[in-house]
Write a structure and sequence with these properties.
It contains two helices and nine strands; from the N terminus they run αβββββββββα. The protein folds into two domains: 42 residues; 107 residues, Immunoglobulins (Immunoglobulin-like), CATH 2.60.40.10. It is elongated and about 115 Å long. The strands form two sheets. Strands 1-6-5-8-9-3 form a six-stranded mixed beta sheet, with no helix packed on it. It is of the alpha+beta class. Strand 5 and strand 6 form a beta hairpin.
Length: 171
């Protein structure tokens, strides 16, 4: 009788140890899972908004073709932004909210196709418009800031006439 009692005490003790170990193992697995998921979240793509100070981890994922420099002027109400990059690269376009440091998405994610070309038309609601082109391919991402100023057509016409007058004067 005493052997059975000793065996059951030993079994209960072993069962208690296994229960405690099981809790520790589960806790360690949960901690490891959280650690890996935080790492993945830190590299998650921006979706609906991006800070104007955002930076990517690459500078050569895409090449902006238009504008030729990272600032441009136009008298039109819209502007075409174009870029080239590897097939499968996802591009989103954001516009800065005036008076804030945030940019809201204006062009949803679109992948570059086999041609390697990307092009989109953006509206220019303000005199000064800051856009962020966010490109992502796997773990590589690039952030490009573009400034597009809208000038009045009358200003453009005056500049053209001044240029023509100067050219005529020089001849």
């Amino acid at each position: 009788m005493q052997e059975n009692f000793g065996t059951s005490v030993w079994f209960l003790h072993l069962k208690g140890l296994l229960y405690k170990m099981k809790k520790k193992i589960i806790s360690m697995l949960i901690a490891a899972l959280m650690l890996f998921s935080m790492h993945a979240v830190s590299f998650a793509a921006y979706e609906t908004q991006i800070p104007v100070t955002a930076q990517g981890n690459s500078t050569d994922l895409i090449y902006i073709k238009r504008p030729q420099t990272l600032s441009a002027s136009t008298s039109d109400r819209t502007y075409t932004i174009s870029a080239v990059g590897p097939q499968g690269t996802t591009i989103r376009i954001y516009r800065q909210v005036p008076g804030t440091e945030d940019c809201m998405i204006i062009k949803a994610a679109q992948q570059i196709g086999a041609s390697g070309l990307y092009s989109t038309v953006v509206d220019l609601p303000n005199d000064s418009n800051t856009f962020i082109v966010y490109a992502e391919n796997g773990t590589t991402n690039q952030v490009v800031d573009i400034e597009i100023s809208k000038v009045k057509k009358s200003t453009v016409e005056r500049l053209k006439s001044v240029t023509i007058n100067i050219l005529n004067f020089l001849r």
